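Incident review: delayed structure delivery

Summary: a single-chain prediction request sat in the queue longer than the usual turnaround. Root cause was a stuck worker, restarted by the on-call engineer. No data loss occurred. The affected request and its eventual output are reproduced below so the record is complete for anyone auditing the incident later.

Affected input:
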Amino acid sequence: MEEQNLNEMLLIRREKLKKLVEEGKDPHKIENFKDAIYAKTIKDNYSEFEEKSVRVSGRIMTKRGHGKVSFMDLQDSTGRIQLFNRMNDIGEEEYEAVKTLDIGDIVGVEGEIFTTKTGEISVRTKKITLLTKSLQILPEKWHGLKDTDLRYRQRYVDLIVNPEIKDVFVTRSKIISAIRKFLDGRGFLEVETPILNTIAGGANARPFITHHNTLDIDMYLRIANELFLKRLIVGGFDKVYEMGRMFRNEGMDHSHNPEYTAIELYQAYGDYEDMMDITENMVSTIAQEVLGTMKVNYQGTELDFTPPWKRITMVDAIKEYSGVDFNTIETAEEAMKIAKEKEVEIDEDLTRGEIISEFFEAFCEDHLIQPTFVIKHPVEVSPLAKRDPEDPRFTQRFEAFVYGNELANAFSELNDAIDQKQRFEKQVEAREKGDEEAQMMDYDFINALEIGLPPTGGLGIGVDRLVMLLTNQSSIRDVLLFPTMKPVGIEKENIEE
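Output delivered after worker restart:
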């Protein structure tokens, strides 16, 4: 019965539109409605607008009243304002037309600003023009659009019914602007590099594969822009960055989406210590500029982004949270034995360095709540990072963790062409054994290193994760306007004429 009633309501809306068209009043032929004033502007400056004529426009969200007086709530991009419709003000014919308007219709209104007896700032309507006829039924805020899956699929409805979520995306825009302002102010140049690549390089990740018909070759959506940006450092740029979409054909969860926004930056004659300085200062500056504080409430926990952030080696973190000291474990066989004792699930052919990385993921990440730099990763899991001169089994690399999630990844970039080629060859071997996330050989990048890459610090930050932290959102889908979703067809009868 409920579905039948819904179909009847949809049919009634279509009949209304059909009648308007037949009468020569097709709203979709109206070209514009200019000079409208925002609801928030009127409310914030009521004394300037009181008893003055205005034009407002937006979507009808509620209707109430009967007889010769009715009320509507009009919603624009800044908020809502009440419409006071009285037959004596607009005439009987116009009033009858107003009564046929539906919730969801988009209208342009001309009228005067006043305050009702209940103290509500309102527009006393003189004329209402239907600009767009809504043919669907908007869900009621408190009972309709609660299904998060549906909210993500129909974000346009979500934004209408739950306009407060716009604040998240306004903040996101401010964060992105603040990132650019911070880096531009420190002499970094924003550049653009290819999204379509012939080699999927710069990270260990499974790529999306497409095909270029004219060249008749497979190509890959970029998983990182690192190798192109480092080519620019070779070419003579000292400080470059790029912020944009990356694509990884991997799992989806609260912190992973197949396409996401990241920023990578590179600084010639710098190292990973410089990147730590940039990371903690950039994030804390953004928090202060956008939120007015460096202390942020996230999921009930206060996160303090004030520099300096804690620093700990990966091996020391494992010792602190698992009790295992890899400083005393010299071989892969010893590491494998300890892993079995600690019930860490690993493959039999892993190296000591790879087992260290597995231990860190198993025992440490969830404990890293406050901003923390985890430094000195094993060479085996850091194919693009410079070796630590004090212990060549490790690298000059860090990952920044906040609330148990990786926020940033940085290196003193490997600029030894011979060492880099050998590491690529090991990655190719892993790929040939079935590791689809292992990196490919990039001979042109090796050639660039042979030309000469100065000592360089490089940094990558997950922009979506930063936005999550600064807007108190627990899922990456809540900071993406259109997250990736499995397709579901819209029922045909809902869109048929």
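Verification: The longest strand covers residues 53-66.
Action items: add queue-age alerting; document worker restart procedure.
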